Amino acid sequence: MTASTTAVPVFIFPHPVLTPVKGKPSFTTLKQLRKEIYANARTIHSTRGGGVNGHLAVLMPDLDYQGRTNGVAFDRPVHPGPPPAHTGFVTPVEIDDANRKHDRSILEFKTYNQASNAFKAQLLAAIDPTYTATLEDPDFGYGDVTPMTILEHLFTHYGLLKPEDRGALRDSLRAVWNPDDPIEDVWTRTNEIVRALSLSEPVPPSAIMRDQLYVFEQTGVFPRACEAWREKTPGDQTLDSLKLHFARYNDERVRTLTAKQAGYHASNSTTPPSEAANAVTPTSTTHITTNNGVMMYYCYTHGLGTNKNHTSGTCKKKTDGHVDDATADNMQGGNDKIMQPYANRARRELNP
C-alpha cells in the first residue's frame, strides 16, 4: 500500500463558503443553504449509488436519494480492516489484485468520511450556534453528529413553511410569465415552488397543470394551444404532455412571429407593399392594420405605435432630420421599430 493510492484528493467546491444564515433560520435561507451544499456534494465523485450523484448520499436521506436514482441505493463504505495477509499459495498477480482492492476500499472510506467532515464544517460555519446547540455533546462536541442530522434538525425546527408562506408560494404558481422570455422559465419556476410546497403537503399534478394552463391563458398568445389542450382526454393530460404541448406551440409562435416581423421590415424598406409578407397590410399613408384589425400609426422618429395622435406629422419630440410626411409604407429612412411600451402588445397582435 502506498500513500499515492490511498491519499484523498483535495475537494474543490463550487461553494467553498456557504451563504451565511443571519439570525434565526427560515425556510428560504435553509433552502439556499441546502442547494449550495448539495451542489458541493455532487462534485466529489463516487461510483456508488449509480455513479452520477457524487457524495450526495452523505447529506440526503436514503428514500429521497433513491428517488433520484430510480431505487439504486448508495452503500456507504466501511473500513476493510488490515491489509490482506496473503496466506497459502497465491500468485503475484493475485497479491497485487488483493492489495489494489484493499487500497480502493480504504480510499473510498477516507473520501466518504472526509467529505462528511467537510460538509459538517461548512454547515456549522454558516449557522449561528444557537440553532444547533442541542445537537452538541458536552464531551465530543459535534464529533458524532452527521451533516445529514444537522440538516434534518434545521429543517424540522426552522424550515417548515408557515401557512402564510405556503399561501404566497401557491399564488406564485400563477405569476405572470412574459412570452418574450424562454418558456423553460415556467417549468423551472414551477418545479422550485412545487418542491417547496411538497415539504409540508404534496401538490396534486392536476393542480399544477391547472395553474400552468392559467399562466398560458393570461399571456393572450396561446388561444389555440389552450383550446387544443382542453380537448385532450384526461388520460392524455399529464405534466409531461403539457410541457411538450405548449413547448411545441411556443416554438411555432416564435418562428411565425420572427418571420412576420422580418416580412414587415422588408415590406417597409426594400420590398413593395404588394409583395410584402402577411405580417401587416398597409391600408393608408397614415397607418397600417395588423392581422387582428388593430391600427398602428407611424412616426419617423419613434416608429410604430397605437396612438392615432402620434404620427410623423404630429410628433412633439422630433429628432434632427425628422420627416413630417414619412409613413408606414414610405418610412423615408425613419425608425422601423415598434414603440415601447407597445412592443409586447404589437407582437401579440402580429401573431394572433
Key phrases:
single chain, 352 residues, mainly alpha, 3 domains, four-stranded antiparallel beta sheet, 11 helices, elongated, disordered C terminus
Question: Can you walk me through this structure?
Answer:
With 352 residues, this protein is mainly alpha-helical. The protein folds into 3 domains: 156 residues, no CATH class; 96 residues, no CATH class; 72 residues, no CATH class. Helices cover 45% and strands 4% of the residues. A 4-stranded antiparallel beta sheet has the order 1-2-3-4. It is elongated and about 100 Å long. The N and C termini lie far apart (72 Å). The C terminus is likely disordered.
Structural class per helix/strand content? mainly alpha
- For the secondary structure, the number of strands is 4
Mean pLDDT: 84
Q: How many angstroms does the end-to-end distance come to?
A: 72 Å
Largest sheet: 4 strands, antiparallel
Task: Give the overall form.
Answer: elongated
pLDDT < 50 runs, ≥5 residues: 270-285, 341-352
Strand order of the largest sheet: 1-2-3-4
Helix fraction by DSSP (H/I, runs of at least 4): 40-55%
Helix-strand string = HHHHHHHHHHEEEEH
- Count of distinct structural domains: 3
What's the gyration radius in Å?
31 Å
Number of helices: 11
**What share of residues are in beta strands?**
under 5%
